[in-house]
C-alpha cells in the first residue's frame, strides 16, 4: 500500500529556504533530462546562488530544453507569434541556459550535461568544456560518484499518489545505487505540474521517495511541447527503406525528428497497403530493398529509451499491439507461436508440454495462471482439488482427462493480462502526444510502462534471457550525421572535439542489436548536406571521430537504399556503401579506396548505382506524393496553412540570400520587382502598414518571394 504524501509545500520561496537549511550553502543537484526539469524551482535556486557568492551550485543534467531564439528581421516576425502561441507567453526559460548562451554563468555556478540539444551549443565554450560523454546506462553510476545532495524533478499527482511520468529513467537507479554504496541520501524535492500526464506501472512511486513536494495552487505554465518538423522527400525515402526491415511480431526502437516520422508514416502505409508500399520501395532502389513487406498481423512491441509521437500513431494504427510478459517460459511460447494471447483449445496442452504448467497443479502453478489471467482469481486449490467460482470442483491432477477437460474449458477464450506493448525511459513530443498520454484508459493505459533506463538500454543486470526474449526480432533505429565507407558512424560530435549532441543511448542499442540473436541495428542518414552553398557527401572515406566503431557495423540506410554490412569484408562494405551514396561522390570515394588497397582496382561503379541523384528520387516518389502517401507534415503541423506558405517563402529567401552577393542581388530584385504579398500574409508578419525603410524592404522581400514560389 502506498504511503501518504507527508510534507507538501505550496510556496516556492519556502521550499528554496528549506533546501538550503537541509543541504547547506553548496548545492550538488541532479535533475533529469528533457521535460522532467522543474524550471521554476531550478531558476529560484539559480538566483539564490547567483546573488550570494559564498554559495555554490553544480547541476548535473542533460537536454536542457529551450525555445528557439529567432534572428532579428523576418525570422523574428514569423517565429515570435508562433513561439508565444506554442509555449505560452509565461513559459519559464531556464536561467542557466540564458546565461550560458552568453557565456555568462556566474563563477559559483557550474552546469554539467551528458547530452546537449542537438547543434545548439556548437562553439559555446562553457557548454563544450563542461560536457560529459557518458552512455545513458552509466549516468546513474557517474552521478552517484559526484554525491549529489539534492535531487529535483517534475512529477504528476493523483490524490496521495505520485508519478514520475515523463522521466523515471534515472532517478530510481540513482537512489538505489547511492543506498547500495552507503552514500548519504540526497534530499528529494518533487514538483507537481497539474498538466503532466499521470502514468502508472513503474512510473508510479511511493510518496516516501520524496522528502518534500512542491504543489503550487493555481494555473501552471505550459509543458514544453516540441513543434512538429517537416519531412523532406529524401527523408520519406529513408523511412520507406527502413520500414522494410521491420519484422512483424518484432520489436521497435526509434528516436525523434523527421526521420522517425518518416519511418512511422511508412510503417502505417505498409500495414494499410502492403503491395503499393513494396512497389514504391522497388521503384526507389530495387537492388537495395529490405526483406519485409507484409501487414503487421501480430504487431510490434516498443522498447525505446524515448517515447515520442510515432508510438502514439502506431498504437492508433493497430501496429503497436504485440505485448510482452515478465515470464521467460511464457514469452518464449509466444515468440514461437506455440500459444496465443487468447487461449484456444490447444493452449493447455502447449503449457503442459513446455513445462510452464505441471501435471499436478500446485499453488505456484495456480498463482502463475491466475496472475496472467488464464484462470479466474476466484479459483481455489484445496487438498488436491480445484474449487471453481460456480461451486463445482475438479481434480488438480491433470493426468485425469476429466480434469484437463474442465481446466481447458475454463481457459478457453481468456485473454492474457499484465502485458506491455511499450516500455520507455522518458517521453517528449508534441502537444497531441501529451494529450494522448493524459487520456489513456484501459489496456492503452496499463500496457504502457515508463521505466528505468537500466531496463530499456541494456541486457545485463540479471534478467538477460527474459529481456532478449521480449526484444524478439528487435530493430533499433538511430540517426547519424556521417558514415565512413567501412561502417563507422559519426553521430554526436565533430573531428575537432566539438559536441553536437551526445552519445545518449545509441551505443547501447547498437551493442544490444549484436547481443540479441535476431536483433539488428539500423543507422539512418541523409546522403548529402549543404554547407556554404556546396553539396557535401555524408558518406566519407574516413573521419576523425566515431560514435559507433566499424566493428559494430550492421545496416546503414540513406535515401538511396539499405546497405547490410554485418559480417562483410571491408571491400564488400565499401561497395555496399557506394551503392547508397549520392552518385556525385561515388567515384571520389572509390578512387580513395583503390589508392589505399581496400577495393580491387578492376572494380567499377555499376550503371544502376549511378542513378542515385535527387532528380531521379523526386520522380520515383511522385506517385506517392500524388496519392497523398507522403507530404511535408504526415501527422499534422503546429503552423496554420497561411504560416506554412509563409515558411516556404522564407526558406526560399534564406537560400537566395545565403551569400553576400546573393543577398545584394535579391534585395535589388525585390526592390525593383514591385511584387506585393496578399494582405493576410503581410498582416501575419506585421507588415500590413510598413512604418520605416526596413519594414518596407521586408514587405518587398515577402512579395518577391511569394511571386516566385508556388504556395
UniProtKB/TrEMBL annotation:
One Pfam family matching this protein: AcetylCoA_hyd_C
Key words, A-Z: Hydrolase
Gene3D superfamilies, per the entry: 4-hydroxybutyrate coenzyme like domains, Acetyl-CoA hydrolase/transferase C-terminal domain
Single GO term (MF): acetate CoA-transferase activity
Stretches assigned to the Acetyl-CoA hydrolase/transferase C-terminal domain: 429-593
Organism expressing this protein natively: Ahniella affigens
InterPro entries: AcetylCoA_hyd_C (IPR026888), AcetylCoA_hyd_C_sf (IPR038460), ActCoA_hydro (IPR046433), NagB/RpiA_transferase-like (IPR037171)
The keyword Hydrolase is annotated on this UniProt entry: yes
A single BP term in Gene Ontology: acetate metabolic process
Domain of life: Bacteria
Name under which the protein is recorded: Acetyl-CoA hydrolase
